[in-house]
Write the C-alpha cells for this entry.
Amino acid sequence: MPWKETRVLSERMRFIMDWESEEDSMAELCRQYGVSRKTAYKWLLRWQAQGPRGLEDRSRAPKTHPHRVTAERVARILQLRDRYRWGPKKILVLLKREDPTIDGPALSTLEQILKDHGRIVPRKKRRRVPPQSRPLAHATAVNTLWCVDFKGQFFTRDGACCYPLTITDAHSRFLLRCQGLEQTGYEAARPIFEWAFREYGLPQGIRSDNGAPFASRGVAGLSRLSLWWIKLGIVPERIKPGHPQQNGRHERMHLTLKQQTAMPPAGTFRKQQQRFDAFRQEFNHLRPHEALGMNTPASLYVPSLRPYPSREPQVSYPDGWVVRKVTGSGEFYWQRQPVFLSEVLGGEPVGLEAVDGRYWRAHFGPLPLGLFDSHQRRMLTVAQARRHPQLQRHDPEDRPSATLQDDPPKHEQVLPMYSV
C-alpha cells in the first residue's frame, strides 16, 4: 500500500470540517488529531477571523529584540558604504573607531544590512586556475620592492583618454602615486617616477609587467625606463607574461580603484585626477587593510634611506673587462666592425667579460645581456646559448633573462657596479 502524503494545512482544514459536522466532541477530535484543546480552539478562532489563511504557520521570531540594530545605526552604516564603498569588515572597524564603546553589530549582521538595502550585489562565481607563481616573500620590508602598472585606460565623459599610472610599496601596500596620464610612453611616465623618488627615496627593486614603458622586445627586455632604474641602482623585476597574479597585491588595489573612481568616470580629466587624489588619501590613511591587521598603509610606511641623486649615476665595470660604448643606432664596435645590440642602450657603456678566446658575456651594470660571439660578431641570447652544445659549459648556472623574470633577485645585496 503506498504512503499517503498530507500537509499540515490540509490536516487543520480536515479538523475544522470534522468539528463543523458536529459528529464528535472537541475532546474526541483532539485525541484523533493528537493536539491539545488549547491549540484546537486557537485554530477555530483563526478560522473564524481569517478563513483558510488563519491556519497557516506563523513566524516564531520575537516581535522585539534587545540587540536589534537601531535605525540610526543602519543609516550610518549605509552612509559609510555609499561614501567609501568598503566591505563590512572595514565599515565595522570604522564604526568602532568612531565610538569604541559600541557593542556590535556582528559582522554577519552588518553584511546582511548591506545586502537587504542593495549595497552588496553577489558576483558570479568563476572557475579559477591555481596560481603557479611563488608569493612575494622577498618584500620583507618597506621599499624593498615597489609594484607599478598602468590601470586599463578609459574615457572621461568629455572624451579624454585616461591611463592611470599607479605605484605601491609591496610590503606596506602604501599607494605612492596614482596619476592619470594621456599616454603610456617613457616621456610621460618618467616625471611621475622622478616625483615619487624625490619624495620617498629609491626602492631596491621595482616589479612590473612586460608592457611598455616598463619592458621592450629588445635584448633582455630592457626599456629606456628600466635602463634608467638600473643606473639609479634599482633592480627591475618583471612578471611572467600572462601571469598577473605575480603582481596580485597591486592588481587587487586596481579593482578597488576602478570601483571607487571610474564607475562611472568623471566629467573631465581634471576632475578624474581629483578622484584619484582623494582615493589615494583614503587608501593610505583611512582604509583598514586585512593583510596589515586592519592597520592603514600610512601607519607602516616610511620613506627610503636612499635619496634620489642630484645627478644621474654612471655605470662602471670591474678591472679586466672590455668596455664598449653603444652608438645611437644600437651598435658597438669590435675590431672596427659594428655589432648590433639594442637601440635602447644608445650612448651607454656595456661591459664584456671574457669566457674564452671566442665568447664574451655582455652586461649593462649588473644586468646580463647575453653572450657575444667574437668570431661571428653577433650577440647570442641565453636561449640560443643553451641550444648550442659547445656553449653549455660556458653557461652552467648563469641565466641573465630569467634573473629578472623567473627568479627574483635578493634585493638585500648591494649592487657593486655603480659610481657617481
